[in-house]
Amino acid sequence: VPLVELRDVHKTFPAARGGTPVEAIRGVDLSVEAGEIVGIVGYSGAGKSTLVRLINALESTTSGSVRIGGREIADLKERDLREVRLGIGMIFQQFNLFRSRTVWGNIAYPLEVAGVARAEQNQRISDLLHFVGLADKAHSHVDELSGGQKQRVGIARALATEPSLLLADESTSALDPETTQEVLSLLRRVNRELGITIVVITHEMDVVRSLAHRVVVMEAGRIVEQGPVVQVLSDP
Ligand code: ADP
Ligand code: ADP
């Protein structure tokens, strides 16, 4: 079974006072196989973020089916839903790190929430710090880090619960070109060495070109094109 499978998914947000309902997602079919890197591109308002929030079960569908690892999200009880969410890591444009915590403390956070034993936490955090190349920054405060270092902490934190899927929402948009390349090569290692499936949302075509195996183009809540990057995107 695909790791992620959406079938005829619709998401309509109710009308704000005096307005009309917003059909953010209008009949999306999407499969993501384990081990893939899929890029989702499209203009602002196309529905990319909503799609991601449906995949990690932060939003529920208006109609249609969302399956993660073959399990229908809408049918899951709170306990199973928590398990599914632990299997999905997220990274963000603005990193969303805790300023009051050290690098170590940020990576520890999801493990504390998940109730992972302290010895196991320490082992995982230490391994992750080495993996992302920040072993010497364990006790630094987040404010002391560069943008690229912050996103590497974000990636380590997202990987702490050993997810099978990583969702990256405009994860390099706040970074300069050189730092973007650093983060992209780390994401490639996450995919290749850890076998983690990655879905990247971005408006940056270069990011998709250099990272994704497959690209999905969204427009006004629909997928208007998808396929291998070389097939969908023209040469620069
Ligand atoms: P993208 O990520 O491609 O920019 P979004 O998924 O954020 O697109 O938004 C798609 C559409 O849904 C937009 O018209 C947006 O205004 C609307 N939308 C997104 N979230 C909400 C919400 N919580 N309530 C109402 N409308 C929303
Ligand atoms: P806080 O959560 O108060 O911001 P820290 O971010 O420093 O604290 O760390 C979170 C937890 O991880 C604390 O309980 C701390 O003792 C522990 N910790 C921090 N660094 C290490 C380390 N290098 N080895 C083992 N445990 C650590």
Work out the strand percent: 25-35%
Instruction: Give the strand order, joined by hyphens, for the main sheet.
Output: 6-7-8-3-9-10
Q: Give the total of beta strands.
A: 10
Q: In angstroms, what is the radius of gyration?
A: 18 Å
The main sheet comes to: 6 strands, mixed
What structural class do the secondary elements suggest?
A: alpha/beta
Give the SSE string: EEEHEEHEHHHEHEHEEH
The dominant shape is globular
Mean pLDDT, to the nearest integer, reads 95
SS field, number of helical segments: 8
- List the ligand species: adenosine-5'-diphosphate
Residue stretches low in confidence (pLDDT < 50, at least 5 long) are none
Residue share in helix:
25-40%
Span between termini = 35 Å
Subunit structure: Homodimer. Forms a membrane-associated complex with FtsX.
Keywords: Amino-acid transport, ATP-binding, Cell membrane, Membrane, Nucleotide-binding, Translocase, Transport
Family: Belongs to the ABC transporter superfamily.
Protein name: Methionine ABC transporter ATP-binding protein
Task: Tell me what the structure shows.
The protein is α/β, with parallel strands linked by helices. The chain has eight helices and ten strands. The protein has helices at residues 48-55, 78-86, 103-114, 118-131, 147-159, 177-194, 205-211, 229-232; strands at 4-13, 22-32, 37-41, 63-68, 71-72, 88-92, 165-169, 197-202, 214-219, 222-228. The protein has a six-stranded mixed beta sheet with strand order 6-7-8-3-9-10, with helices on both faces. A four-stranded antiparallel beta sheet has the order 2-1-4-5, covered by helices on one side. A hairpin with an 8-residue loop joins strand 1 and strand 2 (22-32). Helix 5 packs parallel to helix 6 (177-194). 36% of the residues are buried. Residues 101-102, 104-105, 108, 122, 138 line the site of one adenosine-5'-diphosphate (ADP). Residues 101-102, 104-105, 108, 122, 138 line the site of one adenosine-5'-diphosphate. GO terms for molecular function: ATP binding; ATP hydrolysis activity. This is Methionine ABC transporter ATP-binding protein. Keywords: Amino-acid transport, ATP-binding, Cell membrane, Membrane, Nucleotide-binding, Translocase, Transport. One of its GO terms (biological process) is amino acid transport.
